[in-house]
Amino acid sequence: QVQLQESGPGLVKPSQTLSLTCTVSGGSITTDYSYWNWIRQPPGKGPEWIGKIGYNGATSYSPLLKSRTSLSRDTSKNQFTLQLASVTPEDTAVYYCVRRRVGALYDYWGQGTQVTVSS
After folding, report:
1. How far apart, in whole angstroms, are the C-alpha atoms of residue 93 and residue 6?
2. 27/24 Cα distance (integer angstroms)
3. How far apart, in whole angstroms, are the C-alpha atoms of residue 10 and residue 101?
4. pLDDT per residue over 66-106, tens digit each?
5. What is the 3-class SS of the chain, one letter each residue?
6. What's the confidence (pLDDT) of residue 37?
């Protein structure tokens, strides 16, 4: 059973960089032909895909957020990390890390972590 757990600060000030880490257990981020995604859901809105890092380390970002987003991974800890720069209150959302295997649907989700951008 694959499990994902988000961690990071729940409050970030405007113009700062939001940094979240997803720790994966029960599976390796470097195998299983999987993509490791970040998805967020702002209050009262639908989910929004932020980006992904693949089992081979390749990254892909939402065009809307690409200029502010960076994904990385620590294979020794089986973790991957999201950094979102220059945040504004519009970046307030519940952030999820999610697995999707190649050719399949999103199957394993973290519980989500609330991030609020406020001074």
Report:
1. 13
2. 7
3. 29
4. 999 999 999 999 999 999 999 999 999 999 999 998 888 89
5. CCEEEEECCCEECCCCCEEEEEEEECCCCCCCCEEEEEEEECCCCCCEEEEEEECCCCEEECCCCHHHEEEEEECCCCEEEEEECCCCHHHCEEEEEEEEECCCCEEEECCCEEEEECC
6. 98
